[in-house]
Design brief:
Elements (H helix, E strand, L loop, with lengths): L2 E4 L6 E5 L1 E4 L2 E4 L5 E10 L7 E5 L1 E4 L4 E5 L9 E11 L4 E4 L7 E6 L7
Parallel strand pairs: 1-11
Antiparallel strand pairs: 2-8, 3-4, 5-6, 5-9, 7-8, 9-10, 9-11
Length: 117
Amino acid sequence: MDYQMGLGDTGINLVATLKSDVSGTQTAVDFSTYASVVLFMWPEASATMTVDGVAGTFSDAANGQVSYDWGSGAPSVGGNYRAKFVCVNASAEEITFPRAEPGYFTVKVWAEAEITT
């Protein structure tokens, strides 16, 4: 699960279908009974959070789809970022996605100089 966006692209959401391994098959998680989802994101070369546990939404909970609206929280610097979603169920138990190593997905933010027309 990797994501790409241009620097300053606040009009699009980061949307992902979160999956878990069920008997060797990647299956979308049913989040129908989950309470919340948050996004954490940090630059590849740093541990300083760019997005630090900001609320997302379950855009299609039954089919594992989550969404994060960048709004004013979009990265202000181009580069490679690492990100993960943490989902909280009704019992306040946290589950981190992606479930597989290395435990994050990549968000590539193109700087203006990298965009060609």
